[in-house]
Design brief:
Layout: H1 2-25, H2 32-35, E1 42-46, H3 55-60, H4 68-84, H5 87-94, E2 99-107, E3 110-118, H6 124-131, E4 138-145, E5 148-155, E6 160-166, E7 170-174, H7 177-187, E8 208-212, H8 214-218, H9 225-228, E9 236-242, E10 248-256, H10 261-266, E11 285-292, H11 296-308, H12 313-331, E12 333-342, E13 350-357, H13 360-373, E14 383-385, E15 388-393, H14 398-403, E16 413-418, E17 421-425, H15 428-439, H16 448-457, E18 463-468, H17 487-493, E19 510-517, E20 521-529, E21 543-550, E22 560-562, E23 571-575, E24 580-584, E25 590-595, E26 605-607, E27 616-620, E28 624-630, E29 635-641, E30 662-667, E31 672-677, E32 682-688, E33 700-704, E34 707-713, E35 718-723, E36 734-735, E37 761-764, E38 769-773, E39 779-784, E40 793-798, E41 805-810, E42 815-818, E43 824-828, E44 836-842, E45 848-854, E46 857-861, E47 867-874, E48 880-884, E49 889-896, E50 899-906
């Protein structure tokens, strides 16, 4: 027996030796896969990536060259080829060739490409130029590695450009010499296990192929990437072609189901569906997850089995608690389960779950029952907002307990009904923002391009994950999502050193992954592109006058805008020096409505004061609060007399308040806070500072689990922090005092602010001492900022919505913007003394602007100090700004002399 075994082993070894000897004498024809080192993260194949496309074509369609991975591969190859020869010769050499690019890891922080260009006898002239470059600029160094000759292209200053190997059928190159040595090692490995090479079809209809590991794709979905991983196949081999609208490229794949049987079971018997509820997806949605179902009871049974066997102890235990309510809840579901994560300038996670229902009453009742079974306390009083009754269910992670970990992030559930859908928000602010967008119809179904994306570009699927990439700041190329990627990916794709126009992320707006699950295959679709229109360079950054409405008398305050400036639905309210309150319709008609007792002093606050499901607009003169109730071609003004001593310059919302009838807060000159009660139609004093003196505006309203808190600084350094019931928190009011007798008395010109998600309070003294206070109001750290020879006051400089802050130093004729650490960003000088106004705006989609009004003009700046617009904006009062992210258009409403003017600026 042993003898026969040894004979078998010997025969096998002889066969292997014979095969290896045969391959040494008659080597097999080279393939890309035989040259490629193992461990590749992804492989690209295309015959048009090096093609040139006109600027006009790129404004109307997406191209491979505009996608980040493809763009980076193209740039790496171009840098190599253009260094060796002129660009036209290099383009001609690459034209029509099916070039492959593989991406590899070099170190923990570095990734790089290898490119494989097929060559024939026709290319010999180019290869000769490559191996014999112009000696005035470049030279070739040669060395041997693993028996293979490697050529290194270097500049005359000995700076490496790239390394390459010439084989019988390929030019293999990379900017990394290490990777080329790995290719050489691969070429001379005698014993290699065969690897299946993906068969990419590249022709007029199929522009490119992409093979990638799922972890590469899952990293694109931010904090939910580990959850999205569950829905991905074990390998993705995508064929790309353009969509019918040419705004997106679509990659299709059919991959083995592998170990995704649990997910496939979840969708067993569920017909893939398109998204039906596009009228319930807000325009500011940054991340969207959609599960489409056609058989709700069957889906519910599968989901129950999945949650019963969940790997998380919390989910298993929670599901045991709420299981009695789940059968009714799942049975009541309609076709769509949506999770919308909305863009939030403050960085807070604002997310809303939308559950389409066949029986909305059953679904709502079952959801509430599940909350009480999970330990929710007695329900809080119902609040109403825009005609929707909202209910707080104080139980954590209820959506995840019912629909898997994909729906985490709900510490509490605010619920309401809208039509035949149950709406669940993770915060009151999120619910109100969502309902505002629904009421304004700022949703996907009203946007022509988003409708095309939903109805035509996105496919019917069981599962859809959608991400919209946005700029965080105009001075960085980092995006919301790439900040969560490994450093190597950030260095490859989102290098801050790159010019903005050269970054592939400047052209990619939407990423969507869709999957449908069968018994053996997962059908995948990867959608890449943009819905925002690109502008020609002729109109970029130009101030364009859209509308001008002239009056017979001069204006006495800034015009008030209601509605959306971008779609022409906005009404303007203007005041002239005759005391007339004039409505300007979208058609440009001027209709005198009423008279006011003076110019408007405050900001405008949009609230549902009348509790009728519509927005009214609150603003104050020196003596009166006005409630403007807009109609189609009129506006009705209600008035409430201001208590004596009220500061008429600032109105804010009572965020997080448990009082359903409080709609606005104002400050009193003696250090008090008043609430506007819509039921009593009166102001009620709710908070009082022990020290008499004004509060520095804007004071901060903080939403907590126990209700509303108010943080307010006084000029003498008294820091107040009230609960909603008017009592101060322990250790408050705190007095920020000098630490030694030698220091001057501390004075403040601006507010204190508790940043979202932090426990330390930030403020700055008039003299430029930047202070960090702990939770008890005691100084934890302080830094003295540089003060110029000329005196100037420092203050904290929050944006208009108090979602972020900068620092501001002002003199009578100069303004300096500083970052949060006190580092100078930019200066604006030669301003008119006593006629200046500075404001900070965060408009969404990463647009952050500073407006500086001086005299009769306003200039706009980004946070690097670059001027927005090609000329100043005529304005006698502070301007109003809106940004339309669908068109990248900035709208500016300005009042100057005897006219209201609407301008626009097209941003990149």
């Amino acid at each position: 027996m042993k003898r026969s075994v040894w004979i078998g082993i010997g025969a096998l070894l002889l066969a292997i030796g014979g095969w290896l000897g045969y391959r040494q004498i008659y080597p097999s024809s080279r393939t890309v896969w035989s040259l490629m080192p193992s461990g590749q993260l992804l492989v690209l194949a295309s015959d048009r990536l090096q093609d040139t496309i006109s600027a006009q074509a790129l404004r109307n369609q997406i191209a491979l060259q505009q996608l980040p991975i493809f763009d980076e591969a193209r740039q790496r190859l171009n840098r190599f080829l253009y260094a060796a020869t002129d660009s036209s010769t290099a383009i001609q050499f690459a034209k029509g060739k099916k070039i492959r690019y593989s991406l590899h890891s070099i170190s923990r922080t570095t990734l790089d490409f290898i490119f494989y260009i097929p060559t024939t006898d026709v290319d010999q002239a180019f290869l000769n130029r490559l191996t014999n470059p112009d000696p005035r600029h470049y030279r070739i160094l040669r060395h041997t590695f693993e028996g293979e000759k490697i050529l290194d292209l270097v500049s005359r200053a000995n700076e490496p450009v790239g390394s390459f190997i010439l084989t019988d059928g390929f030019l293999v190159g990379s900017s990394s010499g290490i990777l080329i040595e790995n290719v050489a090692k691969r070429m001379h490995q005698s014993l290699r296990l065969p690897r299946a090479e993906p068969e990419f079809q590249v022709d007029a209809d199929h522009w490119a192929g992409l093979s990638m590991r799922p972890e590469v794709l899952q990293s694109l979905f931010g904090n939910a990437r580990s959850l999205v991983r569950l829905f991905l196949p074990e390998e993705l081999n995508l064929q790309f072609r353009p969509s019918a609208s040419q705004s997106h490229l679509i990659g299709y794949a059919a991959d083995e189901i592998g170990d995704r049987q649990d997910v496939a079971s979840l969708f067993s018997g569920q017909t893939p569906r398109r998204i039906q509820s596009s009228d319930l997806i807000p325009q500011t949605t940054a991340t969207l997850y959609h599960i489409g179902i056609s058989d709700a009871p069957r889906f519910g049974r599968s989901l129950s089995n999945l949650l019963n066997s969940a790997s998380s102890d919390f989910l298993r235990d929670r599901f045991d608690q709420i299981e009695p309510a789940t059968e009714t809840l799942y049975r009541s579901l309609g076709s769509d389960i949506l999770l919308c994560r909305m863009e939030s300038p403050s960085g807070a996670r604002q997310q809303v779950m939308v559950l389409n229902a066949t029986n909305i009453k059953e679904l709502s009742s079952a959801y509430q029952q599940a909350a009480y079974l999970a330990g929710a306390k007695t329900p809080a009083p119902l609040k109403t907002f825009l005609g929707h009754k909202t209910l707080l269910l104080d139980v954590p992670e209820l959506p995840a307990s019912l629909f898997s970990s994909l729906f985490t992030g709900f510490q509490r559930s605010w619920i309401t009904q809208h039509g035949s859908s149950l709406i669940v928000a993770n915060a009151e602010d999120a619910m109100q923002e969502y309902l505002l967008q629904i009421q304004r119809k700022a949703v996907w179904s009203t946007d022509e391009r988003q409708v095309d994306l939903v109805k035509n570009t996105l496919r019917p699927a069981n599962f859809t994950a959608f991400v919209r990439l946005n700029r965080v700041n105009s001075d960085r190329s980092q995006t919301l999502l790439t900040s969560t990627w490994p450093l190597a990916w950030q260095n490859l794709l989102d290098d801050p050193a790159k010019a903005e126009q050269s970054s592939g992320f400047a052209n990619l707006e939407n990423i969507a992954y869709q999957a449908s699950y069968g018994n053996e295959k997962i059908l995948s679709t990867l959608v890449l592109g943009r819905t925002t229109r690109r502008a020609s360079k002729a109109v970029l950054n130009r101030l364009l006058l859209q509308k001008k409405v002239e009056f017979n008398a001069p204006l006495i305050s800034a015009p008030v805008v209601t509605g959306n400036l971008s779609d022409g639905s906005a009404q303007f309210y203007a005041q002239n020096n005759a005391g007339q309150f004039v409505l300007v319709t979208p058609e440009g008609d001027k209709i005198v409505q009423d008279t006011t007792d003076g110019p408007i002093r405050s900001n405008t606050l949009a609230v549902d004061f009348l509790d009728n499901g519509n927005l009214q607009y609150l603003f104050m003169t020196d003596r009166t609060l006005y409630i403007a109730d807009p109609r189609k071609r009129s506006v009705h003004l209600n008035t409430i007399r201001l208590p004596a001593g009220i500061d008429p310059t600032y109105l804010t919302r009572p965020r997080g308040s448990m009082q359903r009838n409080w709609v606005a807060l104002v400050a009193h000159q003696d250090g008090q806070i008043y609430a506007l009660d819509r039921q009593r139609k009166a102001f009620i004093r709710i908070m009082t500072a022990p020290r008499k003196g004004p509060l520095l505006l804007p004071f901060q309203v903080i939403a907590t689990r126990a209700g509303m808190e108010v943080l307010a600084m006084q000029p003498d350094g008294t820091l107040n922090r009230w609960r909603e019931n008017g009592t101060q928190l322990p250790h408050y009011p705190a007095r920020v005092e000098r630490s030694t007798e030698d220091e001057k008395e501390i004075r403040f010109a601006g507010p204190a602010l508790l940043p979202l998600g932090q426990s330390a309070i930030q403020t700055i003294t008039e003299e430029g001492q930047l202070l960090t206070l702990n939770a008890n109001g005691l100084i934890a750290s302080k830094t003295q900022l540089y003060r110029p020879v000329r005196n100037g006051d420092f203050r904290l400089f929050p944006d208009e919505a108090q979602t972020n802050w900068l620092l501001l130093r002002t003199t009578d004729t100069e303004v300096t913007i500083l970052d949060q650490q006190g580092q100078r960003r930019f200066d604006v000088r030669a301003l008119q003394s006593g006629r200046n106004n500075v404001r900070y705006y965060r408009l969404g989609a990463g647009i952050e602007l500073i407006s500086v009004k001086s005299g009769g003009f306003t200039a706009l700046y980004d946070l690097n100090g670059r001027i927005i617009g090609d000329r100043p904006i005529p304005s006698d009062f502070p301007i109003a700004l809106q940004f339309d992210e669908r068109t990248n258009e900035l709208y500016i409403l300005s009042g100057a002399k005897q006219a209201v003017q609407l301008f626009s600026i097209r941003l990149r």
